[in-house]
Protein: Membrane-anchored protein
Amino acid sequence: MQNKVPEVTIAFWTIKILSTTVGETGADYLAVHVGLGTTVTIAIMLTLLAAALVTQLKQRAYVPWIYWLTVVLVSVVGTQLTDVLTDVLGVSLYVSTAVFGVLLGLIFEIWYRNEKTLSIHTIVTRKRELFYWAAILVTFALGTAAGDLATEAIGLGFSLGVLVFGFLLVMMGMAAYLGANRVLTFWLAYILTRPFGASLGDLLSQSREYGGMGMGTIVTSVVFLSVIVILVILHTATRTRHSKASAT
Structure:
């Protein structure tokens, strides 16, 4: 297979952050405003995610719309996994953050022992792709738990949460630029985009009474999803032009 993951560019990180925000606001909208509840929402989204993953795994190369649809669905499911533990089972955010952190470490350990690399530039076999998506799912769950822990349990709030996690993301970028291990900085940044996007989503969607800007989950989700669609269309068009240029 060709590499199944897109190149890490500004567009990649932009779509990733937007998808994490949609994961936060979309999950809240379905569970709370539509009234489906956490359990029903996660059951529906797991079904959709399974279908998207099967479609993604069948591809022999990176297909932008399939890949990013899967990421958005993973974002929603990852958010809901943490919400089930916290809201339904009453698990402390400290515990869930620690558990997801250990689980992600185990996935990376098994992945590296089997494949001798954690680089996303080498997702060219089915086994590596399965390791990749397992890691992605847990990063979303871990990022959700860590973000909720910081903004709610510790009390940073949405605005400060955006600033803190945004600053940490910038630090990861600077570290990579200055020569730090690219694989390590990538995965740390990938984890951090989740609490950053979630804090941004809450800041925009939550009512002013709770420290938000009052846009609501519907408006926030629709706006961010629209931007994702536009960026994916532009990305696909660019890839198509490059492919045609290479063929001539």
The CA atoms of residues 57 and 207 lie 40 Å apart.
